[in-house]
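Incident log, support desk, overnight shift.

02:14 A customer reports that sequence design results differ from what the structure should imply. Their input is reproduced verbatim below. On-call engineer (initials T.W.) acknowledged and began investigating.
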């Protein structure tokens, strides 16, 4: 078992009569090309439904990219994919002002996305992550200009930040403190 129950892309364990999904499942991630275990409620719901269909004979690999969001001090923060595996971050907007969309890449391949206050841009970046193996991506034609700029590796109004493994923060930035909001408690509202 180790870090989870080892399953294939269909959710099947080493015994073809036993399946696993959700927080316990260590499954092959198509974006990273390695096994991962995701502890996020909406991802567990998606995987559980996919594995249930496979138990009934669908035979469809689970390929959904994990994502989550939270509202903090009137700013919606969203993240998708596996940003911890990135070696660069292409950012449009201002991180310190909590108004940005960013694409995380590893060896030039998209592996994650982060956005603050830009839900439409985030949805476009999620679509790109969902179609990372498509060449050329049909999703690219349907995404807003920010996505094109981010995928082009930092066109005007974007900047690229090279990440170093083990660094707690993005180089050249600090974790900004959100503006004080007297109407919002410090607790987060996660997902819907």
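02:41 Re-run completed on a clean worker. Output:
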């Amino acid at each position: 078992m180790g870090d989870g129950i080892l399953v294939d892309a269909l959710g099947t364990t080493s015994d073809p009569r036993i399946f696993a999904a959700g927080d316990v499942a260590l499954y092959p991630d198509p974006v990273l090309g390695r096994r991962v275990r995701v502890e996020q409620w909406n991802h567990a719901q998606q995987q559980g439904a996919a594995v249930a269909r496979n138990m009934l004979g669908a035979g469809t690999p689970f390929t959904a990219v994990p994502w989550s969001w939270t509202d903090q001090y009137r700013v919606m923060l969203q993240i998708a994919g596996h940003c911890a595996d990135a070696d660069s971050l292409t950012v449009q907007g201002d991180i310190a002002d909590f108004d940005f969309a960013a694409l995380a890449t590893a060896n030039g391949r998209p592996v994650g996305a982060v956005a603050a206050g830009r839900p439409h841009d985030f949805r476009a970046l999620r679509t790109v992550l969902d179609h990372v193996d498509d060449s050329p991506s049909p999703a690219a034609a349907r995404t807003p200009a920010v996505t094109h700029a981010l995928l082009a590796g930092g066109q005007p109004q974007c900047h690229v930040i090279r990440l170093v493994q083990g660094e707690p923060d993005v180089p050249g930035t600090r974790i900004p403190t959100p503006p004080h909001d007297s109407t919002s408690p410090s607790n987060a509202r996660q997902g819907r």
